[in-house]
């Protein structure tokens, strides 16, 4: 069935109008930041069963559906959205999603999307340059940081055990990582065939940062256990706390001992664009591999994550595949040999359009602004009785504690009426409240209001 182009134009106009109103309302903070309607009730409100069974949606019916759909979601552009590490997408990235929805060029095979692939090549060249890998490095964009970590560790495995793809994984490999690492690292180890027991913890300080002085002890423990390190992982920054590991110290240790150095920069690598914060990533050029999520601090929609390697050949060695309908003749421009995905979305377009509109400087200013707002929250919280902050923030993530009660209970109270969305994390084995400043609309007024609401007696809260 061919497109009805006239109907598409009408529906697209509805989409633009509804999204514009939604984002405007969200940025002004005039609606709840989050709703938690039970699934069955929400399905009825959206008329899902009827639409699935009968079809027949028109632009007018679509407008009504979209209005409810948007209102019942989580408003990432809202000033009180302080929850998870997901971007408040900038509009150029949204345009890229719109284009891809119709264009749909799965460009891991160059002939399937020459323009999309070329855009990705240039975006990757830019990212490799910012990381200090230059012309010798290699890269690819993937659908998310978890897949990016898996891909980087596949490259590390190919380096440590070149025969693993065909012969299976040797039983002596180990992955060295701090307990503060993202859960996807342990999951990747299991997927790769190492098993969770192959993930060996590094010594850390009280805040979960790698203790560089104790790395020799950690390496000796690995060897005494009859294992050899496949890779050592550092955080830039840690998902829970937003704190950066000492990349230069770790990188120099890895280079001196022949250990593959992987940096999980999913969230914090974007600080490379901020003149006042790029020092946090000093030594990143020593990494053998790095991941960098654009759908966090580069403000693209989900998902767009880069896998970067210091040596291009290392990434090319990660996969081995056969398919007579795909792999024949010269494959010089195809990216499929570097990814799990075959039908890969036009991810580079999201990053490119944000860069094309805002520029490298504009994105760097956004990073600096969000980091500064988080630091401001730390300053305000310390001035208030009953609040404790275990560290001075280095990024846009802050963990804190209030009073002597249940911190998760405080979070639930704030979210019940949709006033604020924040999360929770453990620091030093103690559960804290946690904010991640992502929305550009978050300001001092928002931060003061959050502190006020936290200190309110529970009996005074309720729907507003």
UniProtKB/TrEMBL annotation:
Belongs to the group II decarboxylase family. It comes from Streptosporangium oxazolinicum. The lineage of its organism: Bacteria, Bacillati, Actinomycetota, Actinomycetes, Streptosporangiales. This is Aspartate aminotransferase family protein. GO terms for molecular function: transaminase activity. The keyword Lyase applies. PANTHER family: CYSTEINE SULFINIC ACID DECARBOXYLASE (PTHR45677:SF8), GLUTAMATE DECARBOXYLASE-RELATED (PTHR45677). SUPFAM superfamilies: PLP-dependent transferases. It comes from the Bacteria.
């Amino acid at each position: 069935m061919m497109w009805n182009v006239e109907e598409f134009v009408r529906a697209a106009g509805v989409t633009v109008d509804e999204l514009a109103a939604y984002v405007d309302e969200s940025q002004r903070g005039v609606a709840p930041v989050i709703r938690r309607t039970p699934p069955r009730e929400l399905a009825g409100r959206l008329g899902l069963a009827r639409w699935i069974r009968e079809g027949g949606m028109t632009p007018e019916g679509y407008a009504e559906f979209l209005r409810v759909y948007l209102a019942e979601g989580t408003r990432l552009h809202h000033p009180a959205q302080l929850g998870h590490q997901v971007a408040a997408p900038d509009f150029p990235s949204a345009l890229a999603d719109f284009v891809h929805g119709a264009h749909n060029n799965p460009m891991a095979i160059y002939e399937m999307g020459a323009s999309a692939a070329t855009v990705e090549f240039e975006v990757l060249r830019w990212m490799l340059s910012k990381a200090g890998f230059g012309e010798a490095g290699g890269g690819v964009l993937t659908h998310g940081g978890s897949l990016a970590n898996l891909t980087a560790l596949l490259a590390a495995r190919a380096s440590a055990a070149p025969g693993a793809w065909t012969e299976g994984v040797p039983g002596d490999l180990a992955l060295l990582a701090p307990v503060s690492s993202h859960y996807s690292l342990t999951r990747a180890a299991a997927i790769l065939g190492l098993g969770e027991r192959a993930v060996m913890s590094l010594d850390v300080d009280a805040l979960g940062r790698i203790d560089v002085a104790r790395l020799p002890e950690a390496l000796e423990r690995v060897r005494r256990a009859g294992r050899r390190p496949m890779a050592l992982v550092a955080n830039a920054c840690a998902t829970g706390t937003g704190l950066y590991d000492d990349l230069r110290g770790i990188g120099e240790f890895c280079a001196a001992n022949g250990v593959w150095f992987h940096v999980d920069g999913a969230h914090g690598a974007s600080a490379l664009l901020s003149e006042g914060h790029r020092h946090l990533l000093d030594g990143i050029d020593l990494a053998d591999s790095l991941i960098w999520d654009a759908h966090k601090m580069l403000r693209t929609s989900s998902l767009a994550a880069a896998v970067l390697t210091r040596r291009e050949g290392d990434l090319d060695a990660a996969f081995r595949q056969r398919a007579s309908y795909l792999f024949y003749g010269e494959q010089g421009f195809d990216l499929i040999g570097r990814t799990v995905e075959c039908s890969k979305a036009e991810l580079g377009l999201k990053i490119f359009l944000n860069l094309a509109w805002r520029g490298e400087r504009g994105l760097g200013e956004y990073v600096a602004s969000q980091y500064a707002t988080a630091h401001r929250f730390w300053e305000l919280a310390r001035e208030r009785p009953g609040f404790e902050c275990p560290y001075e923030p280095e990024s846009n993530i802050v963990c804190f504690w209030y009073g002597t009660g249940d911190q998760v209970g405080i979070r639930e109270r704030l979210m019940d009426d949709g006033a604020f969305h924040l999360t929770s994390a453990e620091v030093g084995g103690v559960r804290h409240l946690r904010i991640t400043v992502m929305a550009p609309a978050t300001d001092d007024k928002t931060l003061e209001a959050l502190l006020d609401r936290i200190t309110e007696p529970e009996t005074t809260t309720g729907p507003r």
